[in-house]
Write a structure and sequence with these properties.
8-stranded parallel β-barrel; 8 strands; alpha/beta
Length: about 210
């Protein structure tokens, strides 16, 4: 799966939006410039995850934005999402690729060159690299640095999305790393004005 615009990649987290509606928040984020949406919800039932995925699939299809499902291959297949994102402790990428098929997007989280190269060999379309900056969204994430990010960038020729603590105050530090995009959670969903927050980040993304 090529020609995906990874520039501003939104990862969902219902805990951050409070009592606001997730679908409406994602809609505002897309209007503001988000180009990929990943549904990542850790503390809901499978049925609720499925229903949320269906609603987001309808929304993202309307705006022609890819919907990626985090971890849950079954949900990704059930709603015909654009793709799946997996971590190092999930189903191996090579098996996920077999089950997804060649036409779906497969993303893999990595934190070093070895993992990045393995992900590419096993069929990843892109890799998520992080955590680049300190983050509260994923408590077990090990912080990397921009030098490590650059080394990973130089080691593989598939798209790279940086993740972890990225916000409008530090995003420009990544502009010379030749990555393809940034994944954000609270920097968008934690704002009262989601459209404005997305738009501010979008115009600061000058990676390539």
């Amino acid at each position: 799966m090529n020609k995906v615009n990874y520039k501003l990649y939104l990862v969902t987290d219902s805990n951050i939006i409070g009592d606001r509606n997730l679908v409406e928040c994602v809609r505002d984020a897309i209007i503001g410039g988000v180009s990929v949406v990943q549904l990542r919800e850790k503390n809901i039932s499978t049925r609720d995850f499925y229903q949320t995925a269906l609603a987001l699939k309808e929304l993202t299809d309307y705006y022609n934005v890819p919907l990626i499902i985090n971890d849950r291959l079954d949900i990704a297949l059930a709603v015909d999402a654009a793709g799946l994102h997996i971590g190092q402790s999930d189903l191996p990428a090579i098996e996920a690729r077999k089950l997804l098929g060649k036409d779906k997007i497969l993303g893999v989280s990595v934190s070093n060159i070895e993992q990045a190269q393995k992900a590419k060999i096993q069929g990843a379309d892109y890799i998520g690299v992080g955590a680049i900056f300190p983050t509260n969204s994923k408590g077990d994430a090990k912080n990397l640095n921009i030098d490590i990010l650059t080394n990973i960038r130089n080691s593989v020729d598939i798209p790279i999305v940086a993740i972890g603590g990225i916000n409008e105050n530090n995003i420009e530090l990544l502009n010379n790393t030749k990555i393809n995009g940034v994944a954000v959670i609270s920097a968008i969903l934690g704002n009262e004005d989601i459209i404005k927050a997305s738009n501010n980040l979008y115009y600061k993304c000058k990676f390539l």
